[in-house]
Specification:
about 150 residues, mainly alpha, two-stranded antiparallel sheet, 5 helices
Length: about 150
């Protein structure tokens, strides 16, 4: 007689079954992003000469980075690196299709500063005319971040 073996192993866990926890401190990234964006918006609106296009670019980029980090950390995820390309890729992985037409504008941020390699970095200051579109992207990223965390402002 042949014996029939019954598989008593537990079923495999799929990636969809894994529940992640928020990474502590994501709210600080949210607040920092809001502060950077407020600073950029106010400085541009007032036309303060101390806030050159290069400085405004960096402030807006920091706001966007903080918003992305807040959204990702709230979902228990992190990007592989912190270039705009890496941030966009991480957002696409965690929130598929959420970035929509913002992706191209965010990826354009990387063309102004390629500073990851200390031996061959490249910085191209943006024109003042590029700043309003960057500010709009910052505001749109803030809106998207609120949608991803459930909508309510903290």
């Amino acid at each position: 007689m042949l014996e029939t073996k019954v598989n008593t192993a537990p079923p495999l866990v799929g990636f969809g079954d894994i529940k992640t926890k928020s990474i502590e401190g994501w709210e600080e990234f949210l607040h920092d992003g809001e502060a950077y964006l407020r600073t950029g918006l106010a400085a541009y609106a007032k036309g303060k000469k101390a806030f050159t296009p290069e400085i405004l670019y960096n402030i807006i980029a920091m706001a966007i980075e903080k918003f992305v980090m807040a959204a990702l950390m709230q979902r228990g995820a992190l990007p592989y690196n912190h270039t705009m390309g890496d941030l966009v890729e991480a957002m696409d992985e965690v929130f598929p299709d959420a970035m929509g037409d913002m992706k191209d504008g965010l990826l354009d941020f990387d063309r102004y500063q390629e500073i990851c390699d200390v031996d061959s970095f490249n910085i191209i200051p943006p024109a003042r005319e590029a700043i309003p579109a960057m500010l709009v992207l910052g505001e749109r990223m803030q809106e998207l971040m609120y949608k991803t965390i459930g909508g309510a402002k903290i």
